[in-house]
Amino acid sequence: xxxxxxxxxxxxxxxxxxxxxxxxxxxxxxxxxxxxxxxxxxxxxxxxxxxxxxxxxxxxxxxxxxxxxxxxxxxxxxxxxxxxxxxxxxxxxxxxxxxxxxxxxxxxxxxxxxxxxxxxxxxxxxxxxxxxxxxxxxxxxxxxxxxxxxxxxxxxxxxxxxxxxxxxxxxxxxxxxxxxxxxxxxxxxxxxxxxxxxxxxxxxxxxxxxxxxxxxxxxxxxxxxxxxxxxxxxxxxxxxxxxxxxxxxxxxxxxxxxxxxxxxxx
Length: 266
Ligand SMILES: Cc1cc2nc3c(=O)[nH]c(=O)nc-3n(C[C@H](O)[C@H](O)[C@H](O)COP(=O)(O)OP(=O)(O)OC[C@H]3O[C@@H](n4cnc5c(N)ncnc54)[C@H](O)[C@@H]3O)c2cc1C
What we know:
The chain contains 6 helices and 7 strands. The protein has 266 residues and is an alpha+beta fold. The chain folds into 2 domains: 103 residues, Butyryl-CoA Dehydrogenase, subunit A, domain 2 (Beta Barrel); 150 residues, Butyryl-CoA Dehydrogenase, subunit A, domain 3. It has a 4-stranded antiparallel β-sheet, with no helix packed on it. Helix 2 packs antiparallel against helix 3, helix 4 runs antiparallel to helix 5 and helix 4 packs antiparallel against helix 6. The site of flavin-adenine dinucleotide has 20 residues, from strand 2, helix 5 and helix 6.
């Protein structure tokens, strides 16, 4: 989904014992590898939700759709950022699925949706922390060996050493935020708390991965761009986690509104 989950335009209408899905989804990762896909659909139009002053979260439903259902077509989108998995625009054109594939209650899919978006953010944090860990290893291994002026390795120079040390300290902080979010999810705390912890962890971990990747490239100099060391391959992946699965701006909006209780600007 994009930044405004509540504006999802793919619809499903009930016809007897089936739902009929129409619409499209963009940047869907790895659907060619899946037997089923969890599709968020609008079952009550936004206009009706607004006119009847229903809660903003009302009107979305979840359907567990077999990917070989007639009416689904996949269009690959050439993209970077995730190694080994492709992204697709997925078209639903009069796609009929049995009503029993509804997950939870009709129109009440938002809660279940956030129960799957929160762990995705926690997982993204863990992925970012893992990349930071690996990048620091590569940078330090290189900095211990590389000698440019005399016999002292570049890792002794504080211009190289201190930024790496900072990243190492922040990695512990980032991991603790990630563990706190995972702990909250495992203990089934309320959605707002899990959302807060997951968002804080994801923003911190993604920012740190980008910073560490930059520092690792700096440490390796020209080798930072070589295929042999592989550091440059993580640049896209680190940067992606600032944008997906939720953008940095939407996390700051969430924290501003729900933690700091500041007014919403949009
Ligand atoms: C490689 C890749 C894989 C993906 N895989 C999936 C997937 O499998 N499934 C899936 O559902 N989605 C997937 N996505 C989509 C991803 O979740 C969205 O791209 C992301 O949430 C941003 O939405 P958007 O692209 O529509 O950007 P937009 O919503 O158009 O936002 C554009 C910019 O405007 C900013 N912005 C928008 N509204 C506000 C506001 N109110 N305040 C401040 N700033 C704002 C955003 O932060 C962003 O910087 C994937 C994306 C990528 C790049």
